[in-house]
Design brief:
This is DUF885 domain-containing protein. It contains 23 helices and five strands. By secondary structure, it is mainly alpha-helical. It has a domain of 276 residues. The chain starts with 17 loop residues before the first helix and ends with a helix.
């Protein structure tokens, strides 16, 4: 870590640069939220869980305000820091992220956090998959943290109750979906399965803690089903323009709510949907003569290459990432040795349907990992997994987020972890899929149709996410099931029908995705909007350098900038 980026510690001098302010903020966040410390690897022996009650949410907001005050003090005392490009980027990121977070807090969004993917319920469960379990002491730490799950889940219930008392509710669709997820967790039961591999010397402690934790899951399920859901009845799925704009800013790092920004993004998403559909129709003929895209994808489900067995597909995905790493390192990327380690994992039962990635610790003691939800399946067609693993693993999320960890000492821990913005991260991952197509890695007709299906899914996300939440009119040139609804506002039911006609994934995946969009407004649009910025930034840099443009050098410089929102991403990429 460079001296200028070194965080302060209690009793040390006050921060003197934005990077020092940012890293002091990370340290303070880790003290409030030990899950963050586990994710970063800064406190692997922590047995604590965050305070998820209203008091805990207020403490996080107080920290955000104090950090903003400290940032302004530093910049006021040394105006020259505004001219340093690294310090300037860090200051802009920190200010934008914290003000966006405070806007959400002031609106009470933390008091109605119910969704099928990101919520305190899910983060508390997920932390146990990130904890070390190599030694008896590791298991002892895990047991102590497990015993704190009931308290953490009680705090979460207190927050939801406080929100309900203020008239702030999650929509019933979210509540019922999460109740179903918790039922799946209890079928294991999940926490009992976590401790099954623990040492015999701690068996009683582990089993007792797991029993309490699984009991707490049952209590949350019963609370949501029997107390919260009846009170939430009638809450609309659509969050409306004001709430949507706040959420969209959180995920994208820009204010899309001003002027016609959301309508413009909606129109662009529809145009992308139509553009990709032309490519899909041509690619479908390559798979099966005369077939429509949906017919070709259904044919691939039945007759295309597949892998039988959960462990077998995990091994195949691991091999895919290893092969991509070998092919790209030295040609289109220059990868440090720690980045070359990535692990394919199987997601635990009760996860959302979409695959996901968890980043490495800052010291790489825990590697980056991709996670495949199996949804009870034993057979796995590959046509739609190839491009997905370029997205989740290599050269997608893993190369970006592992590179961030690698350069965190030259930037700040904040810029390479807590300050990450969805449009940057998901935009890069979608860019990575396109890059692999550009480089000729998707010549197999099935795999290329899978890539186009992934592109189409992200375009459809822009349309239905903005369309549903703002209740915008369906375009006048809509076809299929939408044709008779042209000019009428989007509903979740129409969005699901449209999604089903334009995405080759199975029904369970599509149902899970629709709930995700309704419960996480503005997240779904970050993929395509972010990819657009990455592509525009690359093209501008290519024009600026002409024949001297070096794609490998540009990739590494771009991945070493740390987090940037859409307010800054395209411009900063263009200047590399």
């Amino acid at each position: 870590m460079t001296e200028s980026a070194r965080p302060t510690t209690p009793g040390s001098a006050r921060p003197a640069t934005p990077r020092q302010v940012a890293d002091a903020h990370v340290a303070a966040v880790c003290a409030l939220d030990p899950i963050t410390a586990t994710a970063l690897g800064t406190d692997p022996a922590s047995d604590r869980l965050p305070d998820t009650s209203p008091a805990g949410l207020d403490a996080e907001a107080d920290l955000d305000r104090a950090t903003l005050d400290e940032l302004e003090r530093v910049l006021r005392e040394d105006p020259a820091l505004r001219e340093d490009p690294v310090e300037r980027r860090c200051a802009r990121l920190l200010r934008e992220r914290l003000t966006a977070s405070l806007a959400q807090h002031q609106a009470g969004e933390g008091l109605r956090q119910v969704s099928n993917l990101f919520s305190p319920l899910h983060s508390i469960r997920q932390v146990f998959s990130m904890m070390p379990t190599a030694t008896e002491e590791d298991w002892s730490v895990l047991a102590r943290r497990l015993a704190r799950v009931p308290e953490a889940y009680r705090g979460y219930r207190e927050s939801l109750t406080a929100g309900a008392d203020r008239g702030l509710f999650a929509a019933p669709r979210q509540v019922h979906t999460v109740v179903g997820q918790l039922g799946e967790w209890l079928a294991g039961p999940y926490f009992a399965s976590v401790v099954a591999a623990g040492p015999d010397s701690l068996r009683t402690q582990l089993d007792d803690a797991a029993r309490l934790a699984d009991g707490a899951v049952a209590e949350v399920r019963d609370f949501l089903r029997d107390e919260y859901a009846p009170r939430a009845e009638g809450t609309p799925d659509a969050v409306g323009r004001e709430r949507y704009a706040r959420f969209a800013r959180s995920w994208n790092g820009t204010d899309l709510g001003a002027g016609t920004g959301l309508e413009d993004a909606y129109a662009w998403g529809w145009a992308e949907h139509q553009r990709i559909l032309v490519e899909q129709r041509a690619a479908a003929h390559e798979v099966l003569a005369g077939a429509t895209p949906m017919q070709a994808m259904r044919w691939l489900d039945e007759h295309g290459e597949s892998v039988q067995g959960v462990e077998q597909v995990r091994q195949r995905l691991q091999a895919m990432m290893d092969e991509a790493m070998d092919a790209l390192d030295g040609t289109h990327f220059s990868l440090a040795e720690p980045i070359r380690r990535v692990e394919a994992m199987i997601a635990p039962p009760g996860s959302a349907a979409a695959p996901y990635y968890t980043r490495p610790t800052q010291d790489f003691s825990r590697p980056g990992r991709t996670w495949l939800p199996t949804l009870g399946r034993e057979r796995f067609p590959l046509w739609d997994l190839v491009s997905t693993w370029y997205h989740e693993g290599v050269p997608g999320h893993h190369l970006q987020l592992a590179q961030w960890a690698y350069v965190s000492g030259d930037l700040s821990t904040y810029q390479t972890s807590l300050g990450s913005i969805g449009a940057n991260v998901e935009g890069w991952a979608l860019y990575a899929e396109r890059l692999m197509d550009e480089l000729g890695f998707l010549t197999d007709p099935g795999a290329r149709l899978g890539y186009l299906d992934a592109q189409q899914m992200r375009a459809v996300r822009v349309v239905v996410d903005i369309g549903m939440h703002l209740e915008l009119p369906i375009p006048d040139d809509a076809e299929g099931s939408l044709a008779e609804h042209r000019g009428k506002p989007w509903t979740p039911e129409l969005a699901r029908a449209f999604f089903g006609e334009n995405c080759g994934r199975d029904a369970a995946f599509l149902d899970s995705e629709l709930v995700r969009y309704l419960g996480m407004p503005g997240q779904a649009i970050s993929y395509k909007l972010g990819e657009r910025a990455w592509l525009a930034g690359r093209e501008a840099a290519r024009r600026a350098h002409g024949d001297a443009f070096d794609l490998k050098a540009w990739h590494m410089a771009a991945l070493s900038q740390g987090s940037l929102g859409l307010d800054d991403l395209e411009r900063e990429l263009a200047e590399l």
